[in-house]
Amino acid sequence: MASKKALIRRPGPRLAEGLVTHLERAAVDVPLALAQWEAYGDALRAHGWETVEVEPADDCPDAVFVEDTVVMFRNVALITRPGAESRRPETSAVEQAVAELGASVNWVWEPGTLDGGDVLKIGDTIYVGRGGRTDAAGVQQLRAAFEPLGARVVAVPVASVLHLKSAVTALPDGTVIGHPPLVDTVSAFTPFLPVPEESGAHVVLLGGAKLLMAASAPKSAELLSDLGYEPVLVDISEFEKLEGCVTCLSVRLRDLYV
Ligand SMILES: NC(=O)NCCC[C@H](N)C(=O)O
Q: Which GO terms describe its molecular function (predicted)?
């Protein structure tokens, strides 16, 4: 049977020191962040996902953004080499966690860099954003890892936001959603549905019509609800101050036969 597990990683005491690139730094309330992270995990579990906690990395302020450390395609986990040097120590415990869950493990090698936040999978198509964190060698290594498994890898430039998935994600039917001012190449995505808020571009597919979304995107949630989806809203304000979004707080593992 296909698995329904999701990796998550508890935020550490240094969370407030997390990287900010496109935003002004704002004070992060760490206890509130922890409560928001617990509620995020509760929302996953309430919709049938078994959450698997990666061992915390308390020296790494950004470790809670676990999505950036691994890309899954079928049963293969590509352990990334994050573009930000301060994030590179995050990967070893993630590697151990996915290996223990039965994934085959592959790696992005130096000098390539790749952040999981730059990788959007829609069926067998994998969009990869070449931007501030993912370089050309990282894109090549992603292709080398997944094209032999049947993926079609499509590279797109990313400049306006931190990661590709800060700009666009996809609905269950494959429609790409994004807030147009922040999508560098709208024409790369067909079909494309504009949403009215930046954080409205971020959905985690919970199963069926349910979409995990940030509470900061009420108008986008209303739009999607009107299209027959069922948004499940979580407040992740403290992570948004660090350029995090709902997608980056977990990695869903759907193709492990365990
Ligand atoms: N996939 C993501 O959107 N990750 C967010 C990472 C935020 C973190 N502060 C960073 O700059 O790396």
A: amino acid binding; dimethylargininase activity
